[in-house]
Amino acid sequence: MSHKGDNEGKKSSHRTELYASCIPGTCLPIVYHPDYNITFMGLEKLHPFDAGKWGKVIHFLKEEQFITDGNIVEACEATEEDLLVVHSKRYLNRLKWSLVVATITEIPPLMFLPNFLVQRKVLRPLRTQTGGTIMAGKLAVDRGWAINVGGGFHHCSSDRGGGFCAYADITLAIKFLFERVEGISRATIIDLDAHQGNGHERDFLDDKRVFIMDMYNRYIYPGDGYAKRAIKRKVELDWGTEDSEYLQKVELHSEGALNEVRPDIIVYNAGTDILDGDPLGGLSISPQGIVKRDEIVFRAARRRGIPILMVTSGGYQKKTARIIADSILNLHQQGLIGAESREWH
Question: Is the pTM of this model over 0.70?
Answer without folding.
Answer: yes
